[in-house]
Design goal:
The structure is a homodimer.
Chain A: H1 9-37, H2 43-69, H3 74-78, H4 82-91, H5 97-118, H6 124-133, H7 141-153, H8 157-182, H9 184-191, H10 199-220
Helix pairs in contact in A: 1-2, 1-4, 1-5, 1-9, 4-8, 5-7, 5-8, 5-10, 8-9
């Protein structure tokens, strides 16, 4: 990767891959949250979960529009990531609404942090879009309240949900690893060229992701 | 029903019932379309179906906001209609994406026409909200294209989908009948007082609904 501008075909390919990955992630996030909403114990919580799904769809639309603006076919850009993201969701189908909430908060939280990290390696326009799409608008605050209330009512839940969260992280890392192997362009975005990370930098990035994950677990009242 | 203003407690109750019915219908419309979208044959059509679901959710939010503005608890207002609407969806779960599309176009089309008819029996503000929420924005145009293309590719589909559409109408009428018996306030909205419909008026209303349904079936290329 010679430069981080669209003049460099390697860079252009990497950005299209990145936008395709994010777009398909949001589209499936929409699907899964919509499905989770039907497991909510009451209509108020069903509507709150559905609202998060609707937000995912708006985020998908913004990413798709960017691909169209770049002259790309959004479906073709998403296609390489269908298998990984579907595998992640297939192996982490929540058994109940609470597991769905923890998945949204913990799983999507790690993904969002990672995408925000990646935004430092792309051109300003792409970076601005990613930061805007993945900005934390506090919509998941009700997740925190709901999970903490559930644990207060039944403390045995804390162990089960903490175990569930660890499984989510494991599956997410496993699919992230697969994507980085299958799509060299994306890995190159992070590690190639002068602006790329060295080994120490990669370690620091993982450290930041881990710290924020631990904070989220604590916020939910779960052991990391 | 002495007058169609909120001073009349019967009228106020009827409007809250109406908004609760519409809001729950949209919330479940969101759920079902989101689920249908996952059966789409490709990502483009999946995204188009998901877009309709996201629109349903925005419509739900507007109806819910109106209930809140009226000082009502949206969940309490929706509760009386959960059973009927869930029964409708439970008996009309699509077996594939095309059946889902026909359900969205034909089933939701009849419901929308009916709600627009009801809008002539409510105060101007409620009427304006209903007309705006249920305005046909052409979003379902892709349904027509998709169904017609599928039938062109496999003409035997036309018979199965026409049968399916008739079942949808039957189930919808059956639940509408149940709602009108269980919630007298809603039936009263249409037939009580000077502004209410007489028997001939009810017949004409059904005639208009039937005509528009027949037109929709023709648009899809299905025998009514």
């Amino acid at each position: 990767m010679k430069s981080r501008t669209f003049d460099d075909p390697d860079y252009a390919e990497a950005v299209v891959d990145l936008l395709g990955l994010l777009a398909y992630g949001e589209l499936q996030g929409f699907n899964r949250m919509a499905a989770d909403s039907t497991m909510a114990p009451n209509l108020r919580q069903q509507a709150q979960t559905a609202a998060m799904a609707a937000t995912e769809f708006r985020q998908f639309e913004r990413l798709r529009e960017r691909l169209v603006t770049l002259g790309q076919d959004p479906e073709a850009a998403m296609a390489p990531f269908v298998s990984s993201i579907d595998s992640y969701h297939g192996t982490t189908a929540p058994n109940d609404w609470l597991e769905g909430l923890v998945k949204i908060y913990v799983g999507d939280g790690i993904a969002r942090d990672f995408y925000l990290e990646v935004s430092y390696f792309v051109d300003p326009e792409t970076a601005g879009l990613i930061r805007s799409v993945f900005a934390d608008r506090g919509q998941a605050d009700f997740v925190v309240t709901s999970v903490r209330q559930a644990i207060a009512a039944d403390p045995t839940l804390a162990g089960r949900l903490a175990l569930w969260a660890r499984r989510l992280v494991g599956e997410a890392l496993s699919q992230a690893q697969r994507v980085s192997v299958e799509r060299e362009s994306l890995a190159a975005l992070l590690i190639e060229g002068e602006e790329g990370l060295d080994l120490e930098g990669v370690g620091q990035l993982f450290g930041r992701l881990t710290n924020r994950h631990t904070e989220r677990m604590a916020t939910l009242g779960l052991a990391p």
